[in-house]
Amino acid sequence: MKDYYAVLGVPRTATEAEIKKAYRKMARELHPDVAGPEVGDRFKDVAAAYEVLGNADKRAQYDRGVDPRGGNSSAGAGAGFGFEDIFETFFGSAMGGQGRRGPASRTQRGGDSLVEVDVTLEEAVFGAHREVMVDLAEVCTSCGGSCCAPGTQPATCPQCNGAGVVQRVARSLLGQVMTTAPCPRCGGYGSIIENPCTACSGQGRTRERRSVDVDIPAGVETGTRIRMSGAGDAGPGGGPRGDLYIEIRERPHESFERRGNDLHCTLELPMTAAALGTVATVESLDGPQEIDVRPGTHAGSTVTLKGLGVGRLQRAGRGNLYVHLDIQTPTDLDDQQTELLTQLARLRGEEFPEARLAPFGGGVFSRLREAFTGRS
User: What is the topology classification, in CATH, of domain 257-373?
Assistant: First the structure.
């Protein structure tokens, strides 16, 4: 899937205004009528990126790993927005100002925020509730998001008389046209803040650290993102909040290895227990579990404990726990133990054993390969 953020040259935390600004800048530079037909493919990529990132719903889908365009990044330039958007990118609102949209609002949606959270394997298996400390933009308590010092309000811009735009004659590929552009004095807002709030420097918001309650569902893994709608940065000018994304990082476990929704562990057994058979206890994440070790069990054998793996994300059920048996050969025999094993070898006719190659597809290495790869 194409990285639309990289195409526009903006970070994943970019605001809607920053994305629009980056698109307009690149569209002017890369339009085939300006830069030539050889940049046509790049212009299409830029248009596709803006189609996704310039739309809040499509951007949310993309941030979850789904390309709302179906992975097609070579659609025609301007797909998803009309001729007016492309014309405005190059000429502003033309035709004598008839396309004027009025002053821009200082109230904007806040940006999305991303925070990484470490979780244990137990939390990934069963899910958890966590309190996470995050740095977020909050509505300024001094001005209430108005951006003005308490007791004051914005003044009408004297250059545009509150319209937010000014008219000018410009030369273009279509000849001379009357265009409108944002007022350079007020930045297109139609008003000027003469007495900005000192607590927030006229931004209407301040940066604060606060605690956020996060429900971590079972089945998450490293890279999983949890979207918390409306829990991100407060918008400029008292605007609505953006979204908060929690990205999961799963810490390794000292005894268990995770592969998808399954867990794997190794249980060490003495040679005598494997030869005679026994009932062994495995300390699983669900508590002690007894397994039946049959007489004559070989090294590399696997016992499956169904339903004791990782919970499936947004689905019912859990994976399995696979217990791989590692048979331990004694190395510190005393004289009596050595004599007993010698007698056993004599009784089994193995005093002078002949080593031989096992048939291909059999033996301990084959069993180990099958256990670790799932092949049979």
Answer: HSP40/DNAj peptide-binding domain (2.60.260)
Cα distance between residue 104 and residue 177, in whole Å:
23
Q: Which amino acid is residue 307, in one-letter code?
A: G
Report pLDDT digits (tens) over 144-161. 999 999 999 999 999 999
Both tokens assigned to 354: 């002949």
Taking the CA atoms of 286, 290, 294 and 299 in sequence, report the sign of the dihedral they define: positive
Q: How far apart are CA 246 and CA 214, in angstroms?
A: 8
Spatial distance between the Cα atoms of 263 and 77, rounded to a whole number of angstroms: 48
Q: How far is CA 297 from the centre of its chain?
A: 44
Give the contacts of 13 (CB within 8 A, at least 6 positions apart).
111, 112, 113, 114
> How far apart are the C-alpha atoms of 323 and 116, rounded to whole Å?
32
Domain 1-91, CATH among 1.10.287.110, 3.30.365.10, 3.30.565.10, 3.40.190.10: 1.10.287.110
Q: What's the pLDDT tens digit per position in 68-84?
A: 776 443 333 333 444 44
The single-letter code of the amino acid at 365 is: F
* Residues in Cβ contact with 368 at an 8 Å cutoff, skipping those fewer than 6 apart: 300, 324
**In angstroms, rounded to a whole number, what is the distance separating the alpha carbons of residues 93 and 103?**
13
Q: Are 184 and 106 in contact (CB under 8 A)?
A: no
Q: What pTM was estimated for this model as a whole?
A: 0.62
Report how far Cα 196 is from the mean position of its chain's Cα atoms.
37
For 136, phi then psi, to 5°, come to -130, 155
Consecutive H or E run containing 58? helix 56-63
DSSP state, residue 81: S
7 vs 62: CA distance, rounded Å: 14
**What pairing do the DSSP bridges indicate for beta strands 244-250 and 113-119?**
parallel
Task: Tell me whether domains 101-251 and 257-373 share a fold.
Answer: yes
